[in-house]
Amino acid sequence: MTSEKPDVAVVGPGAIGTTVAAALHEAGRTPRLYGRTPRERVELRVGPPGADERVEVPGPVLTDPDAVAGVVDLVFLAVKATQVDDAAPWLAALCGPGTVVCVLQNGVEQAATVGPHVPRGAVVPAVVWFPAWTQDDGVVHAPGEVRLTLPDVPAAGPVVDALRGTRCDVDVSPDFVTAAWRKLLQNAVAGLMALTGRRSAVFTRPDVADLALAYLGEGLAVARAEGARLDDDVPGRILALFQRPPGDQGTSILTDRDAGRPLEWAVRNGVVSRRGRAHGIPTPVSDLVVTLLAATSDGPG
Ligand SMILES: NC(=O)C1=CN([C@@H]2O[C@H](COP(=O)(O)OP(=O)(O)OC[C@H]3O[C@@H](n4cnc5c(N)ncnc54)[C@H](OP(=O)(O)O)[C@@H]3O)[C@@H](O)[C@H]2O)C=CC1
Ligand SMILES: CC(C)(CO)C(=O)C(=O)O
């Protein structure tokens, strides 16, 4: 970090990017905004249903990477995993040797997918624990605690510094592999919501609950083979989380399906089958889920 007030950019000011941009702005560290849709500002609504606290982040949201003025200290990359290649020109324009790119994406492969687009600078993956979504009026709603986990590596330092004292809590984990796979298992099984077109209430069906546990059991075996230290009760705990009343929890992959957008099936689900094959672990349930999600992502028609 070159100064007290780092030069920060958010690439992909959607649900997660806007939430982090708002946290930075409230702390006086307003980021530059780079996106696909031009806008004068982005806006966050915080708190549970009924609450109406708003944070407006001044723009504009620039959409042409050629308009980037120069490299920055810190980039939060919050495009979907399916959009990383298209967002590469932003990274080329914004990254110098001292730039840190914090990847706000689901999955466990951010360093491998984003790294090739950041030949100068460092890539730090983040586990994004909080839900957020864009309302019909374009305002992003983040109803609960906003929290990230980062690996305990030197490049995490500028991210922690930038978010210190903001509404976005950051913890640094010495066992990031475990945190990342714990979240990945949650995301993988949430794929059943995208397949059924239903919110979390779908997990209260005994047959879906059994399927979810079988799927999570495969994922647990793969996660452990990857070095994650997860207890036997993790599948049951994840299922219980989704079975909580009132059953209206969503997931960003369901939002994408409802909007007819490509699904992040490869990084959220495909990875279980791929890493399973690499370790010689059979993943028949995962393979079936992946085929159906990939086909859903291609649709409709
Ligand atoms: N939403 C959630 O609750 C959670 C999401 N995540 C993960 O966070 C990541 C981001 O998800 P989310 O915020 O929901 O996604 P969104 O679709 O809400 O946001 C993505 C943003 O990136 C923009 N974008 C797309 N292509 C480009 C491009 N080439 N250059 C610049 N900007 C671009 C989109 O623009 P446009 O507005 O034009 O579409 C959009 O504003 C995903 O990996 C997701 O899995 C993790 C935890 C929770
Ligand atoms: C909501 C949450 C945090 C858990 O499924 C998520 O990661 C997503 O929607 O992608």
From TrEMBL:
NCBIfam families: apbA_panE (TIGR00745), PRK06522.2-2 (NF005091), PRK12921.1-1 (NF009541). Keywords: NADP, Oxidoreductase, Pantothenate biosynthesis. One of its GO terms (biological process) is pantothenate biosynthetic process. Catalyzes the NADPH-dependent reduction of ketopantoate into pantoic acid. Residues 175-295 form the Ketopantoate reductase C-terminal domain. It comes from Promicromonospora thailandica. SUPFAM superfamilies: 6-phosphogluconate dehydrogenase C-terminal domain-like, NAD(P)-binding Rossmann-fold domains. It is an enzyme of class 1 (oxidoreductase). This is 2-dehydropantoate 2-reductase. Gene3D superfamilies: N-(1-d-carboxylethyl)-l-norvaline Dehydrogenase, domain 2, NAD(P)-binding Rossmann-like Domain. PANTHER family: 2-DEHYDROPANTOATE 2-REDUCTASE (PTHR21708:SF26), PROBABLE 2-DEHYDROPANTOATE 2-REDUCTASE (PTHR21708).
